[in-house]
Design brief:
Elements (H helix, E strand, L loop, with lengths): L6 E9 L3 E6 L5 E4 L1 E5 L10 H6 L6 E5 L7 E4 H6 L5 E2 L11 H18 L1 E2 L2 E2 L3 E12 L6 H12 L3 E6 L5 E15 L4 H6 L13 H9 L14 E7 L4 E2 L2 E3 L2 E4 L2 E2 L3 H16 L6 H9 L6 H29 L6 E5 L1 H5 L3 H13 L2 E4 L2 H4 L2 H10 L2 H15 L1
Parallel strand pairs: 1-10, 10-12, 13-18, 18-19
Antiparallel strand pairs: 1-2, 2-3, 4-6, 4-7, 5-6, 5-11, 8-9, 11-12, 13-14, 13-15, 14-17, 15-16
Helix pairs in contact: 7-9, 8-9, 9-11
Protein name: Actin-like protein N-terminal domain-containing protein
InterPro entries: ATPase_NBD (IPR043129)
């Protein structure tokens, strides 16, 4: 009898300090809080049904991991971890290294397993209780943490051996998923968006509403509208504002020229705001990921309090972003065509940051491209996925497989 054919996934994996964004097979990014809790048993009441967990798997993710790349244990992941009310394990802003911490591996494996369940269920029912999965994946670590050694270590942790994930569908049912990474490539955060701004997920020149804001500005200057082809030969200074770090690479086409990062991001502001926010809602121990979720949810009852708590700490971070931009401009002797701003932190920093950077761009004859909020958070995940689909990735994979075979 022929062996069962494995499910093959192509993945762009953006492991943030607060949010974990993962693009699989070109579908819209799945987003989870970047945290987990280790537990000794599955956190489900006896009356919870298998069907209800399957239908809500991204909010009910409880797994056991068996892998050489991370501690073998039972975990609740992301939103379910936050809802558990237990102390969270997350990436400490400015401290933890993504190449060595267990969270990037544990949460990636768990989120891949969640996707497999989501896409193989019908009406809350799975046709089988085991799956084999192979993966090609692009991921990234901050510039401030990046070395060739760190990047190769993270790649090795994924590609070395098989990873076995048991997913708990309530207290009585499990599904078994075996994941093998055919090839993984780790690059610097801030550089994958060069792919996302030029191309869509099918590899065609990008031409959608991401360019609406910049084209309106160009119209006021009697300049023609643009699409992704506009950036193919441009020298771009990126400002990718994350949680613990912000990346400021300068790229030309898809090639990094000057790579730089700073240990400043909105996560620092969130950490400083957390005490005031918790006092305002009379809850002493809400985690940073909870505050981040409240800020993103405009309809949340605590949204206004969260914005009030974070305003002053965020105002203190903005000068660091501006200084980082100026430092990179000087390093490049002003030879920059476009300043492109994105990342989750760019949303909170708008419009104050744009107002600070606009005069600099005008003085330096640079075009300012402040990526709209609905696209800003997915630039790295989308770019990593498009990178995986690119000839560059395929050539790297071919060379790796030839080396392994020799």
């Amino acid at each position: 009898m022929a062996a069962e054919k494995a499910i093959h996934l192509e993945i762009g994996n953006d492991i943030g300090n607060s949010a974990h964004k993962i693009v699989i097979n070109g579908e819209p990014a799945r987003v989870q809080p970047a945290c987990f809790v280790k537990v000794s048993k599955a956190l489900f009441d006896d009356e919870v049904t298998e069907e209800s967990v399957i239908k809500d798997i991204w909010n009910q993710l409880c797994v056991s991991i068996n892998s050489v790349a991370a501690e073998n244990a039972m975990y609740v992941i992301g939103r379910k971890a936050i809802d558990s009310g237990r102390p969270l394990i997350n990436l400490e802003v400015g401290l933890d290294k993504k190449s060595t911490h267990d969270l990037p591996v544990v949460n990636t494996l768990a989120n891949i397993a969640a996707y497999v369940i989501e896409t193989n269920q019908k009406d809350g029912i799975l046709a089988k209780d085991s799956f084999n999965v192979t993966v090609d994946m692009g991921t990234a670590i901050p510039v401030t943490q990046f070395t060739d050694e760190a990047a190769r270590l993270l790649e090795k942790r994924f590609m070395e051996g098989k990873h076995r994930v048991t997913v708990y569908l309530g207290s009585r049912k499990q599904v078994f998923i075996e994941i093998t990474f055919a090839f993984t490539r780790c690059t610097k955060e801030g550089t994958p968006p060069t792919f996302a701004i030029q191309y869509d997920k099918n590899g065609a020149i990008r031409n959608d509403s991401i360019f609406e804001r910049i084209n309106k500005l160009r119209e006021t200057k009697d300049l023609p509208p643009i699409d992704g082809s506009h950036f193919q030969n441009k020298r771009i200074l990126h400002l990718d504002i994350g949680d613990g770090t912000s990346e400021l690479p300068i790229t030309e086409g898809n090639k990094p020229i000057f790579v730089h990062g700073i240990n400043h991001g909105v996560g620092h502001a969130l950490e400083e705001a957390l005490f005031q926010f918790n006092v305002s809602i009379n809850i002493p121990d809400s985690p940073r990921q909870y505050l981040s979720d409240v800020i993103k949810n405009k309809s949340h009852k605590y949204h206004a309090r969260a914005l009030s708590a974070v305003k002053t700490p965020l105002d203190q971070e903005i000068p660091h972003f501006v200084k980082g931009v100026n430092d990179q401009i000087k390093k490049a002797r002003g030879e920059i065509d476009v300043l492109m701003i994105y990342g989750g932190g760019s949303i909170l920093s708008y419009p104050e940051l744009e107002e600070r950077l606009q005069p600099i761009c005008e003085e330096r004859e640079m075009e300012l491209f402040y990526v709209p909020a609905e696209y800003a958070v997915d630039m790295n995940a989308d770019g990593l996925y498009i990178f995986v689909k690119s000839p560059i990735f395929q050539n790297l994979k071919k060379k790796y497989l030839e080396t392994v075979a020799s």
